[in-house]
Amino acid sequence: MWGKVDFIINWFNDFSERRRLVRNFNRSAKGAFVSGIAPTLLETSISRGESAYRHSFSKLFGGGFRIKALSGRPLNRQEMKQIGDVVLANEELVRKLISLGWDTLEVHDNAGYNGLKWELYKHAGIGGILN
Amino acid sequence: MKTILITYAWQGLALFEFLLIVFLLLKLRKKTKNTLKSNFKKFKKNEVNMDALMKDMHHSKDLYKELSRKYHPDRFIGSTLESRAEEFFKSIQENKTNFNKLNELKLQAEIIFKI
Lengths: 131, 115
Hints:
The complex is a heterodimer. By secondary structure, chain A is α+β, with helices and mostly antiparallel strands. Chain A has one domain. Chain A contains 3 helices and 4 strands; from the N terminus they run αββααββ. Chain A has a 4-stranded mixed sheet with strand order 1-2-3-4. In chain A, strand 3 and strand 4 form a beta hairpin. The radius of gyration of chain A is 16 Å and the shape is globular. The two termini of chain A are 30 Å apart. By secondary structure, chain B is an all-alpha fold. Chain B is built from 4 helices and no strands. The termini of chain B are far apart. At the A-B interface, helix 1, helix 2 and helix 3 of A face helix 2 of B.
């Protein structure tokens, strides 16, 4: 019984921490856009993620960390790759994403239909623990 | 009479020492508790610096291009700074997406290469 209680408490804790991370990202992105640091407004949301990229800590129906760029035009591959590469280069963030149940990083624009996806655990540098 | 007074004085001193020890122990315990609490709070507040991430996303590419062009090792072939340029170029590539680090490297380069 206590195991179930623990599971429920952990689930709610993780949920609030996930929401906090998304909120922090969005707040910073908005701040950067308003103050002129960033030319594009970015927004993150939680998506379903790629089922092929799932790992043992993935959240059900919530494994995708989607970054949407409100650029007003379709972004080219290089621009999307730049955004993704910066996130993946930040190992602390990637590890946090994995520990909170995300498995896929998605970058999209608001105008086009194309996007890029990355498998997060390949970029966490954790020596294949999740394999 | 004198002996009784001396005994009381010793007892008082012993009591004072005992109270002092208890007081110090309690203080130490409180301090340990506070450290644990503050550590936990720090852990809970351990947020990723998103503002720096935004700068990395939007400005690191331009700065990387500028630095890699300006301090490319090919520009220093045959000069005394050739090996330093190679090292510097490596560190630029390692911190390709880190805007703050690239800025630091830029300042260093201005001193080393004087360009």
